[in-house]
Amino acid sequence: MKVSQMSKIYGLMLASGETVHQIGRHGIGKSEGVVGFVKDHGNIHMELLMLSQNEVADLIGMPYEENGITYWSKPVWLHRMEEAQAKGMECVLHLDELARAPLEVRQAALQIVLDRRIHEHHLPVSKAGLKTLIIASDNPSELYQTDELDAALLDRFCSFTLEVDPNGWLKWANNNNILSVITDYVADIPTNLHWMAEDGEDDKGSTPRAWAKLSDILKNIDMVPSNLAFSIIEGKLGKTVGHNFYGYWKDYVKVVKPEHLIDIIGKSPIKTQEEQEKVAKKLMKITKEMEQVSADQLAQKLRMGYQAGKEGFTYDLLSTYLTSLNLEIMASIIKNWKTDSDTSKFFFNWAKDVPDRHIFTKITNKVV
Fold first, then answer.
1. pTM of this prediction?
2. Cα-flanking dihedrals φ and ψ of residue 118, to 5°?
3. What is the pLDDT at residue 46?
4. What dotted CATH number matches 3-161?
5. Any idea where the domains of the chain sit in the sequence?
């Protein structure tokens, strides 16, 4: 299951009164996914219990005596949930690192999961009749130092094994102010979003969480001498990915981005073939030395921007960019678009929209 798909799962489980157990490697966005679901819903209150750091009293409160009878105080997190419920909100209880928790804490959590109660205190039920959604998060036991959960506890969950989702992470990153040098790198090399070293290798590897934190660091990188940048990047991403990304980051100013082309072409439509040839010559100054891989990646970005209707991503932009490329590279891109099942329909529909006055139509008739 992809992390980005879990939001729909949470909604279903909340409506169904079910509990969720999600298992996935560290740093892939399990916690962020829960937070995102709560934020997107707009009328949910969430409490996070980091069980590996909690004691039993944090979950169930403290005992006290009154008139010879033992009672249990209400934990503050439960009090906050009840306040939210009184305001008409749904509630989510996120039990993080359940399998890392001490045995007595897991046993205390068992009653919460099984009965949605702690002694005489019950988890809130919303005014719409929806029970508190319980979500437990863990790392896989075969890869991490975690304990096996009791079968009786697991039986009460709907369990999901989560995997890294580069496309979903990029959508999240674009909405959360992650630096474009990072999103462009991940888009180019998605396997490095979450790269783990082989057993025995001395390398921490990279995770989606590490990339997000690195973005914050790079926004303030001018605070330290430039010769420290490599060590900082390597310290966050590990040796292998860190070394690779450092070179990309250092040369990023040389990378041709859609924004560069939009600035050169401008927003006014190109009305004549002479105008397009003139603009194409301007683009050649920055595209003439592009290699096949880089040219193709930029073409894909322009194509997707055009299909999505993004501002500035016009057929003038895409066709003029293609005509500015080395003829062999241009021909290769167009042939791939025509033969690939995912892009062939786009190519023929788009090519019909490009006016005859464009030099692009003349060149494609010759090379394709």
1. 0.61
2. -135, 105
3. 96
4. 3.40.50.300
5. 3-161, 166-253, 258-367
